[in-house]
Structures are given as structure tokens and as C-alpha cells.
């Protein structure tokens, strides 16, 4: 499964014009962990269900919370979530008024 994931990631980088070699080489400086160890950790968490930032907002508002700060990323290919590349590491701060 790791090889499948890495192959798909390489294809994504090629299609979007990004440097795969540079990404992997600089990965540890940006994340603090080797890329291949991170892939192993991520795949160990599958399967999982993702939720979009918009869905989080609707749910939180239904519970009576309002957003204070939302930092949302988009995973996938061409900005379209595909699941295989995750949904990013989103951060939400909500407060009940």
C-alpha cells in the first residue's frame, strides 16, 4: 500500500509541476520526520472518514458555536479532495456565545 500511495503522490507532483525530489529531501526540515516514516504512520490510520471545512462549520454552528479562527487546507489533486492524499491538517477555533 505504501508503494501505491508513493506512486500516486509522484504522479500528483508530476502533473502539478512540483519537484518530488525536492519535496522528499526537504520534508524532514518542514515536518520534523522522515517522509517515508510519515507515510507509514498515515496509512496505519486508514480507513478514516474526512469532513470538509464547510461541513465542520455547519455542524459547529448547529451546536451553537461561532468560528473564531479557521485555517483550512485542501488536499487532493487540482484542489479537489480525492481522499488518497488526505484533507490536510486543518485547525479550527470555535467559541460558544
Can you summarize this structure?
With 97 residues, this protein is of the alpha+beta class.
Report on the structure:
The protein has helices at 2-16, 20-31, 35-44, 53-62; strands at residues 65-71, 91-96. By secondary structure, it is α+β, with helices and mostly antiparallel strands. The chain is elongated. The model has no long low-confidence stretch (mean pLDDT 84).
Q: Whole-number radius of gyration? A: 16 Å
> What is the CA–CA distance across the termini?
45 Å
Structural class: alpha+beta
| Shape verdict | elongated
Which sequence of strands runs across the widest sheet? Answer: 1-2
Number of strands: 2
What proportion of the residues form beta strands (DSSP E)?
A: 5-15%
Share of helix among residues? Answer: 40-55%
Average pLDDT metric: 84
Output the helix-strand order.
Answer: HHHHEE
* Individual helix count: 4
* Largest sheet composition: 2 strands, antiparallel
Low-pLDDT segments: none
What is the count of structural domains? 2
